[in-house]
Amino acid sequence: MGTLIQHGTVIHADSSVQADVLIEGETIVAVAANLPPADHTLVDATGLLVMPGGIDVHTHLDMPFGGTTSADDYLTGTRAAAIGGTTTVIDFALQSRGHTLAEALAVWDSKAEGKACIDYALHMAITDLSPAGHPHNETLAEMEQMVARGISSFKLFMAYPGVLMIDDGLMFQVMQKAASLGALCLIHAENGAAIDVVVAQALAEGKTAPHFHALTRSTQAEAEATHRAIALAEMAGTTVYIVHLSNSDSLRELKQAQARGLRALAETCTQYLVLSLEEQMPGKSFEEAKYVFTPPLRLKANQAPLWQALADGSLSVVSTDHCPFRFADQKSLGRNDFTKIPNGGPGIENRMQLLWHFGVNAGLLTPERFVALTATEPARIFGMETKGVLAPGKDADVLLWDPNAAYTISAVTQSMNTDYSMFEGWQVKGNVSRVYSHGELVVEHGKFLGTPGRGRFLHRKANAGELL
Ligand SMILES: [Zn+2]
Question: How far does residue 376's CA lie from ligand 1's centre (Å)?
Answer without folding.
Answer: 21
